[in-house]
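PT: before anyone asks, these are the final sequences, not the draft ones from last week. 556 residues across everything. Please model them as a single complex and drop the result in this thread when it's through.
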Amino acid sequence: MRLRKTILLFLILALALGAVVGCSNSSSTHLAFVSLPEADSQGASGVGVMRINDSGKFSSVVASPYLAGNSPGPIVVSPSNQFLYVANRIDNTISRFSIDSQMASLKEILPRTGTGLSPNSMVMDGSGKFIFTANQLGSNISVFSIDSTGALKEIAGSPFPTPRNPVSIAVTSSGSFVYVVNTNLELVFGYAVGSDGSLQAVPGTQFAVGAGALAIAVDPSDKFLYVANSTDNTVSIFLIGSTGSLTPVTGSPFSTGTIPIAVAVSGSYLYIANQGSSNITAYTIDSSTGVPTAITGSPFSAATKPAFLLADPNGKSLYVLGDGSNVITELNITATTGVLTSSTESGSASSTPNFLAVTK
Amino acid sequence: MTIGSASRPLKKLFASLFFLAAIFAVPTRSAAQVAPRWEVFGGYSYRRMDSTSLGFTDYSNLNGWNAEGMFNLSPRWSIVADLSGHYGSHLNVFDYMAGPQFNWRRDRSKIFVHALFGKAQNTINISNGTQTYFKGVGHAVGVGVGYDWDFSPRFTIRVGQADFISSHTFDTNQNDIRVSTGLVFHFGQIGHRPKL
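LR: through. Structure below.
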């Protein structure tokens, strides 16, 4: 009897310990990756990794940042969330990493893949078949096929020449068309992508945008193309035709804040970061005509001198990087209206990030 | 970390355990008044580690060992020194702590509760291109309960010991559960048997 009471007491106390800690907290999370071209206080640069939970809270990862090439810049994640690619702008290479989502770790798979000179912009199509880099000093576009292991292979004919100084590039999620902004010429050039990744100019080839055109984006339905004109303080909006040719939407270009420098699209919502006025212009885009309507409350306060925008693939958040800041600002997107509200959460990188990508 | 700065669950657990210890401290006619002077424990240990604080997506299950040396000041009160090491595919955890222990001895068995204070050393074996591992050292605080059963004059089976260990490494807190079992060797004697 005494022994039974003793054992029972022990079990009760042991269970109390277990109850204190509670059960597994494997809540859904995803990973955020930032390019860190500048060395931090420990002398480390490369790719920073953070974990974001369902409520938007950022948590740091011990081994971050991970070493990449010289001056890591544009960064993309494969649709499978298995691989990460970073364009190293001084090395003229692409670093390929395998992603371990459980440990939030990266492992670079060498050797790095060579690109044209100064790959300042990089995109991947929605199915993860090809990567495209706009090589600003090389004045060309490199195209790489991606195999099942995530390995890159430059396709025959790459790099494809473009007019001088292509600054940014966008691809439709179907992978059918690629568009490149040339700031000096105030033009966007369109290319059809063949099944082998080769590029052919679309009918019309070049399409006029505003002065200081810098940022470019395509909406998820592949119907509209957006170009921010940083000198004109406008955004040009185009309908994408079946051949890839562009037709300006009635009334284009549309006004923004001062120095619009980055564009992000979340469903039917368009967001433009205005670096000069430190705010974000927000529009709802008509799904048929492409004509924008300002969202109530626009422009919204953002980070000081916003320089980069990324919409969460889940449509809940908009992430903002500020020029010269280590902070990753998170804004909540109201699903029904597109209104942006401040989040109580934000992330902090070990040095100033210039590009951001997230897993789904 | 001190008790004052510990999390709310840990504070509640401290309060519960010391309340129980106060109840058990009341002497009864059946309380054992003989105890060994020294006890040495060694055995297998499992640790459920709060690796989410280090960036992992979930808790980690680690296997390892636990060892303790106990000096019994009286049949009821001891000083315990505790060492443990736990290992996973990318994680190593090493703790070294010491503290007071209260023993409730009954016939051939013993229930004990203890509070431990010391250090934790967590090593993460991940390469980032410049380092192949990362080591964090910080304060550790633990509370635990256990049950021993004597099967011979010299040897006791530690049927089970469960500890809650809170440590602070890599600028974050880890709240772990550790469960151990094994053998206890005891020698020397203190106390006296009641006169018949």
